[in-house]
Structure formats: C-alpha cells, structure tokens
Amino acid sequence: MTDSLDTRAAAATPVRVAREIRGLSDRAIAWIFVAPTIFLLLAINIFPLIWTIRLSFTNFKANRNRDLEWVGLRNYERILGDSDIWLNMQATAHFLFWTIFFQVLIGFTLAYLINKKFKGNDLWTTIIVLPMMLSPAVVGNFWKFLYQPQIGLFNYVIAFFTGKEPSSFEMLGSVNLAPWSIVIVDTWMWTPFVMLICLAGLRSIPDYIYEAAEVDRASKLRQFFTITIPMVLPFLMLAVLFRGIENFKMFDLVVQLTGGGPGSITELTSINLKREAFEKWRTGYASAYAIILFVTVFGLASIYVKALNKVKER
Amino acid sequence: MSNFFTGLLRLKRGPWEMLATILIGLGVVMLMQPFALWLYTYSFVVTLAGTVMFIIVSHFKE
Amino acid sequence: MSSFSVTEPSARSKWFAGTLVILYALITMVPLAWIMLTGFKSPSDAISYPPKIVFEPTLEGYVNLFTTRTRQTPEFLAANPPEKWYEEIVREYDMVIAGPSKFGERFLNSVIIGFGSTFLSIFLGTLAAYAFSRFKIPLADDLLFFILSTRMMPPIAVAIPIFLMYRQLGLSDTHLGMILLYTGVNISLAVWLLKGFIDEIPLEYEEAALIDGYTRFQAFYKVVLPQAATGIASTAIFCLIFAWNEYAFAVLLTSGTAQTAPPFIPTIIGVGGLDWPAVAAGATIFLLPVMIFTILLRKHLLRGITFGAVRK
Fold it and tell me: Which residues 6+ apart lie within 8 Å of C169 measured at CB?
C-alpha cells in the first residue's frame, strides 16, 4: 500500500520538492504514532504479565512484608491437583455450556424472525439489544432484587404460572437453583449479542443463492439446511467463541448476583481467583492460577482471531 | 485427509493451525470436564502446548 | 401486495415473525421497566407482596439516593419546619437531611474516568491505527494480534500485578491510575476498530493532498481525520460504555476517592437492610445514558461488539 502511494506520489512530483513536502520520513511518523500505544500496552499489560509469571513461582503474600521464596512449579502442581478448584471449573463449565446453548437457540431464532423484515424490525431489534449494553454489576444487583423469594417479581411470575408458593423456592439460596439463576440472567443479557451476529450472517447471504435454489425446486426446509445454516455457521462460531471467552472469565455479574454461593456452588473460576488473591492474599499461588486462566483465554483468543479473519474475508 | 498429512509434512500453515486449534480445544475440555481428575491435571500442559504451537505455526507460509 | 421476488417473505410469515419478536422484546424489557418503577416506590411498596404494579409514585428513592439523613426529636422537628420539597419527604419518617450522600461524587468519578480514558484511548488509538493502516510496520500482524489479545485477558488475572504496581507507584484509588488502566484496556479495541475504518478511506485522497504540497502530518489531520469522524465517534462511544460499565478493576483498585458508580450502587444501605428504591433510582440514573447512547448508536453497534468482524 505504502509503496504504491509513495512511488505514485514521487512519480508525480519532482524529487527535490518531494523531499521538502514530506518533512519527517514516513518511518519516523509511523514510529511516533505507534510508540505511545505500544508503551502503554507494555506498561499496563505486558509488564504486569511478566511480573505475574515471576510471582507464580514464589510463595509471595502481598499483605506480608517478607522476602519471597522460590517454590518452582509447586503452585501449579497444587492448583492442578486440587479437586476443589476442579469443582469450580465444572461450575464454570455448567455456566458456559448452558448459557451458550440457550443464547444460540434463542438468538438464532430471533435473528431468523427479524430477517423476515417485518415492519418496524429496526426499532424492536434496538430494544432487544438494550440489556447487553448495561453494566453487568448493576444488572446482577437488580436481578438479585427480582429473585427475592418473598417480594421478588421473578418468583411471583413463576408462582403465577405454576401455582407454587412464591416463598417456597429461593433462586439464589438453593443449591439446585442457583446455577440456573445465573444462566437465566446471562441468557437474558447476552442473547441479543448472538442474535446480532446471526443477523449479520443471515444478511450476508446473497439473494441469488436462494433464487437459484428456487429454480432447482429445492424445498424451503432443504434450503434452510443446505444454504442458511452453512452460510451462518462461521458467524455462529464467532459468537460462540466470543461468549465462551467472556463467560469463562465471568466475574461482575455473578459476583453481584450470588457472590459464588450458596457454599461455592456458583463460584466460577474468576470469583475463586479473586478469593485467593484478594481475600486470602496467597499472591504467588493466585498468580499461578491467573496464568492458567490466562493461557486458556489466550489459546481461545487465537482461535477467535482466526475465525474472525475467516469471516472478514467474506 | 491425505492432504492434511502432506500439508503437515510441508510445513503448510493451514493443517498445522488446525492441529493447534484441536489441541487448545482438547485442553479446554480437559480443564472443565467432570469425569476424571487426572484429565484436569494435564489440561494445562495440553492448552499451553496448543497455544505455543499456534503462535509458531501462524508464521508458516500458506 | 404480492411480491415477485422469491426471497421476499409472505405477508403472513412477516406478521407471525413480527408478533414473536415483539413478544420477546416486551418480555425482555420487564426487568428493566420493573427496576425503573421501583425507583419511584416508597420502601414499603417496593417490598410488598404481591408485587405492586399500581402504587403512589414518590421521589423518596431519589432523595434517599442523593442525601444522608438523621433521625431527630419531635421538638427539633417542630422548631424547624421543612423548607424544600425534599425535606418534606424525609419528615414523614421523623428525619432531617444531614447532607449530600456519596452518590453524586461516585457518579462524577464515573464521568471523569470514563471521558478521560475514552479521550486518551481515541487520541493514541487513532494515531496507531493510522500508522498500522498506511505504513509498513515490521511484525504488524503479530503486534495487532497482541493488541487484540490484551483486551481478552481476564481482569482478575491482570488485577494482581496492577494492584502491586499501583501500590508501589501510589496510583491506587486515584483518577489518573484508573484512567491509565482503562485506557490500557480500551486502546486495543480502539486501534483494532479504527484501523478498519481508516482502511476504508481511499488512498487517493491522501495522494492528492500530498501532491498539493501537504506534509504527511497535514494530510493526516486535514484529510484522514474528517473522513474517519463517524468511525472515531462510534469507537469513542464503545470505549466510554466499557469504562462506564467496568466493575472488576474498579472494585479491586478503588475504595474511596476514585471509586466509580458500579461498585458503589450495590452498597447503598437504608434503614434495616438495602434501600431498594434508592438502589433502583441509582441504577436508573446510571443505566439511562447507556440506553440513550445505544439507541443513537444502533447502526454502528455491531462493528464495535464483534471487534470489527461484521461491518453492517
């Protein structure tokens, strides 16, 4: 790109003038423009990361003023052998699996319906999108109010439709229901995201493909499975990966809703990590934990970027 | 399928990235599955291997 | 009415689809509407069973949100008649207003940190995006991937070293510290999105400017910037919304002076437990700007939330 611009500009301009009008060389400008960003990212992201890696091999405690001791891989061994943390991972898996399942199901259906281009679909799409733009912590906090067993709207509505006593079940207090309470709120909040991406996928399918299928007398059902689904799939993959990454590191919404309770039944990995790092102050141990989460997210992010470029090429 | 293996041998980017992706996916599943503790224990090594591999092979030629 | 295109859905299927979507939209709005209603309830109405849909609206929640109150003796109350409407509201509970609450301050912190970090991310992000878009930078792809992946880090994992670093540098619980931190997180999205916008501006405009005798720098701010204005604006709103909504860093790294509204709102305590109308009032005031932005921004929404993957 740059070459063509330079050569064409140079061809059109006498050499001497060309040199004068540039002032700074392109390379200098490029570095001046990029340097502050790189510097900031180094200071806020890379330096802390390297520090975390270093701490993860020590038994440092941030609330004590003592020399750190090198413990080698012991922190990693302890975390990866700890069946309690394994249970936290399973809680995260439950949350991940079901939120993605419901969001894809409802999100795709909504996108499919909106793509019928009924009158006013723009307005209703915007309204549906509202929840996902809000602060997750504040959303978690007010859903806690809706989930109150005696006074909450959610229990009242469920009671109204099922005939149960509204005070007979506690969404946030019961071991069986709490994992579902966080799935419900996350689905409410993030279904619009999956919907928007599916909608973009549906709109990217050119009309002539359907027209050709119509000429071939393919049934509507057949068209749906041989054209619509395969064409939307890359977009859907993108949505699933993104929600997967986001929910793997979920913190704000759930910490406000359940705080990880009852017991540790909804203690997702980020909440667990926060306890280790900022309540028990086992900084070295928590750093190793952070690195494990970090590598997982980084791996998933690599796949995400690959999927992203694939979609961009279309 | 045979294309996949010749691609691997010739250090083509596509199949290697696919392999790294599978490793990362496997690692993530091992991390969160509810079946065996030892799978959880070795998940991190698998994810790490996949991620490092992904970074390296993304510099291979198409 | 009938359409000749085979891809145009029939009137009946449009009607069917419209009904279902509107139904979903209405159901999904119920929690939001409920929280806004609760802000105008009295504390006893807010916790009544069955939940009240019809009630006498009061601004008590909003008054409680912005003030601190103390209980007073009947003699004191008789001697000092209420002067303002908001003083009258708290008199019903034999209380007087003792002063402003911390909510105003926390809200202002959200504004300062939100706008500060947005400005900084856009300023630095535009420069970097231009450089990535127009010049050959060694390892550009790796740098861009690295920039994007920093955005995906789990905040709690990053918070441990940032916490230690800020403690050393004296940046804990300061506006500057939070602005720098949010800029560090936001700049990745800013660069990534803005590069997409600048890539779309044809090179010819700049070529013409260069030939007309502009320097590179002049060409950048006189030609490229105005062309990218819409993109810059929508990127800015995304950065603002992120900083506005952020909770994890805020709750771990701030406690007083620089605390933003999200960690503060859930801690609003009334007499005997959480004061739900005041919490609801706080949530309403806090969420309303984002809702308005969302409605204004709807056309550019998709690009921002998918890291620019989807352009429409």
Answer: C177
Task: Compute the average pLDDT of residues A151-170.
Answer: 86
Ramachandran sector of residue C200 (left: φ over 0; alpha: ψ -120 to 50; beta: rest): alpha
Give tens-digit pLDDT for C212-258: 888 888 888 888 888 888 889 888 988 999 999 999 999 999 888 88
For C70, list phi and psi in degrees, rounded to 5: -130, 150
Concatenated DSSP letters of A99-133: HHHHHHHHHHHHHHHHTT--TTHHHHHHHHHGGGG
Query: Which domain range does residue B15 map to?
Result: 2-57
| Domains annotated on chain C, with CATH | 104-267 (1.10.3720.10)
**Radius of gyration for the alpha carbons in chain B, expressed in angstroms and rounded:** 13
Question: Does residue B62 lie within any of the structural domains?
Answer: no
Minimal C-alpha gap between C89 and chain A (Å): 24
Of B24, B34, B48, the CB nearest to A90: B34
Nearest to A298 among B21, B33, B51 (CB): B51
The predicted-structure confidence for A26-59, as pLDDT tens digits, reads as follows: 778 888 888 999 899 888 888 888 999 999 999 8
Instruction: Please indicate whether residue A20 or residue C54 has the higher confidence score (pLDDT).
Output: C54
pLDDT at A17 over 70: no
Closest Cα in chain C to A217:
C6
**Separation CA A29–CA C225 (nearest Å):** 16
Prior bond of C138 cis (ω within 30°)? no
Is residue B33 assigned to a domain?
A: yes
* Cβ-Cβ contacts under 8 Å, A8 against chain C: 207
pLDDT of residue C273: 66
pLDDT in tens, A177-203: 999 999 999 999 999 999 999 998 898
Contacts of A202 in chain C (CB under 8 A): none
Instruction: Say what the ipTM of the complex is.
Output: 0.90
CA-nearest of B57, B6, B10 to B23 is B57
Domain count, chain B: 1
CA distance A193 to C306: 9
Question: How many whole angstroms from its chain centre is CA C207?
Answer: 39
The secondary structure of C3-24 as a DSSP string is -S-TTSPPHHHHHHHHHHHHHH
pLDDT over 50 (residue C260): yes
User: H/E element holding C229?
Assistant: helix C229-245
The partner residues of C270 in beta bridges, in order of sequence, read C273
B41 → closest Cβ in A80, A93, A298: A80
User: With contact defined as beta carbons under 8 Å apart, do C285 and C271 qualify?
Assistant: no
Report if residue B38 sits inside a domain: yes
Asked whether residue B39 is domain-assigned, the answer is yes
A22 by Cβ neighbours in 10 Å (0-12 / 13-18 / 19+) ranks as buried
For all residues of chain B together, what is the average pLDDT? 88
**Residue C257 per-residue DSSP state:** T
C126-184 tens-digit pLDDT: 999 999 988 888 777 777 777 777 777 888 888 889 998 998 899 989 999 999 999 99
| Contact criterion met (CB < 8 Å) for C265 and A29 | no
Residue A16 has pLDDT above 70, yes or no: no
Q: Where are the domains of chain A?
A: 15-55, 80-313
Domain made up of A80-313: CATH architecture? Orthogonal Bundle (1.10)
CA distances (Å), C175 to each of C155, C166, C233, in order?
18, 12, 24
Instruction: Say which residues have a Cβ less than 8 Å from residue C66's Cβ, sequence separation at least 6.
Output: C100, C101, C103, C104
Chain B residues bordering chain A (beta-carbon distance below 8 Å): 17, 20-21, 24-25, 27-28, 31-34, 37, 40-44, 47-48, 50-51, 54-55, 58
